[in-house]
Amino acid sequence: MPLDEDLLPEARKSYRYQWYVVAICMLAYVFSFVDRQILSLMIEPIKRDLHLSDTQFSLLNGLAFSLLYSVMGLPIAILADKRSRPLIISIGVAFWSLATAASGLAKNFVHLFLARIGVGVGEAALSPAAYSMFSDMFPKSKLGRAYGIYSLGSFIGGAAAFIIGGYVINLLKSVDAVTLPLLGEVRAWQLTFLIVGLPGIVLALLVFFTVRDPRRRGLRRDADGGVQKVALRHVIGFLWRHRRTFAAHYLGFSLYALVLLGMMAWTPAFYIRAFSLTSSEAGYLLGVVVLVANGSGVLFGGWLVDRLARRGHTDAAMRAGVIGALGMTVPVVAFTQVGQLWLSLALLAVAMFFASFPMPASTAAMQVLSPNQMRAQVSAIFLLISNLIGLALGTTLVALVTDRVFGDPKMVGSSLSIVYGLASVLTVLLLWRGCRHFRRSVAAERAVGEPAAQPEGVS
């Protein structure tokens, strides 16, 4: 139905504001990935100064971050389903920014491990709250696009971490240490953490003062017309009722995350060791690959979800995941096995493009199926499983194969091929099987009432 002309300016204002919220949440996601990813580029100086093995470094890059990032996501998500979501996001941004800066003060493995746990705790506040807000702001036909643009922040952040980190490392390559007021002597890599961490405080204030919590829509109501109160046991009951769907979704997309996050964590070390690149050179090259390949991949993945949905596929998000997993399987194995740098980077770009599909796809699937009162919690449980598998297990498996099977750091490329090749095949099988279960779950939820009725958007 056409909008009345008198309402058009207000409608346009609302439309612009909706995308402003997506943009500022995307910017927060950029900051989160810069703070998360910068560690992987500085693997060699950190290992040298703190006397670490590949396995210990993988714990910093995986387990330390994912431990409380995964666990704290659920209680924070429970708050996000009941309290102000912009407030939760702003507190989270401030917390992880300070924790990143604290990484620059680390003097040993334990100090850095604790600081990385802090980064994980702060970042746990962002995605569940952002996902929940978007579902209340956009119709289903635009959800894939909104999630795709938001998810783009992870790859802009990953690229920025590589490029900015490479620039700072190159800038400080002749500087062994600097002396700062109150802090004393700090190494170049420690200064890098301070530089990238502190600006997040400004972003936290921007979220707090400019984003308002949208009205919650699609709430299920009891027989008296009141909003049903949802406890964690209700969420567990919902997941159990659709256990085949969520088993395929959670495990399939978690293995997908294992491949994507593992490549983000280990490709700098691979190119430094296999092609004798400097940290700066690796940062610049990988920054371009992540920005172009992953950025276009996540946008295309979001478009594909919306396209399949418009064509009547109720399992659109799961189908998009299957397509992406099929596309990444061969290049993710091959890029470490070729001898030419240009060919390796080309294959990596293809792998990264398809590896980006699940970011909007996995989110859209959860938000479409779940009732409003439990969206953030369903997302948080997924992030709990996804990050324990994708970050903690995925990065450490590669290190263990390198250290224990090959016993040679230069064989990290073969470890990548083995671990992520197997994970890619399992991803395809799980998501393909999950499509059928997802269709059944959507039909079942529609039979008892549309769980996530969306507001009409402005075209």
Automatic annotation (TrEMBL):
Keyword Heme: no
Transmembrane regions: 20-39, 59-80, 87-106, 146-169, 189-211, 250-272, 284-305, 317-335, 341-359, 380-400, 412-432
Gene3D superfamilies noted in UniProt: MFS general substrate transporter like domains
Pfam families linked to this entry: MFS_1
A molecular function (GO) term: transmembrane transporter activity
Entry keyword Membrane: yes
Residue ranges of domain Major facilitator superfamily (MFS) profile in the record: 21-439
Cellular component annotations (GO), alphabetically ordered: plasma membrane
Location in or out of the cell: Cell membrane
Superkingdom of the organism of origin: Bacteria
Membrane topology: Multi-pass membrane protein
Signal sequence extent: none
UniProt-listed InterPro entries: MFS (IPR011701), MFS_dom (IPR020846), MFS_spinster-like (IPR044770), MFS_trans_sf (IPR036259)
Alphabetized UniProt keyword annotations: Membrane, Transmembrane, Transmembrane helix, Transport
PANTHER family: PROTEIN SPINSTER (PTHR23505:SF79), SPINSTER (PTHR23505)
Protein name (Swiss-Prot/TrEMBL): Sugar phosphate permease
Organism for this UniProt entry: Amycolatopsis thermoflava
